[in-house]
Amino acid sequence: MTKRSTDDEKPVQSPANPNEVLRLLANDRRRQIVTVLDAWNESVIHFEELQQQLSSEFESSDSDNWLLQLRHVHLPILEQAGLVEYDGRNRTIWYDDCELVTEVLTVIESRANA
């Protein structure tokens, strides 16, 4: 998977390293974010749409904190790892399918439902 770029930078490879993928998905909130992105039918999603898809995860008293963490903690971590590209100005998130991520999410979901 490669990371898209809005400027002339070279594309950056996503974390194909299993240890990096496991580290990223070890956090429950990042796993929720990546699950939505992985299931999304397009490679780009608007921040508001991601927020709406995750809204069932927000508790009313915690929603502002969750949104702050989404924007200022989790998306930057996923971006730094090369899994997403977040354009804060246009409020869009690019995600290209990563087979390893999909496989790990599938295993986690199957174990959770067992």
UniProtKB/TrEMBL annotation:
Q: Which residues form the DUF7344 domain?
A: 23-93
Family annotation (InterPro entries): DUF7344, WH-like_DNA-bd_sf
Pfam family membership, one: DUF7344
Question: Locations of Basic and acidic residues compositional bias?
Answer: 1-11
Please give the residue ranges the record annotates as the region Disordered.
Answer: 1-20
> Can you say what this protein is called?
ArsR family transcriptional regulator
- Record lineage: Archaea, Methanobacteriati, Methanobacteriota, Stenosarchaea group, Halobacteria
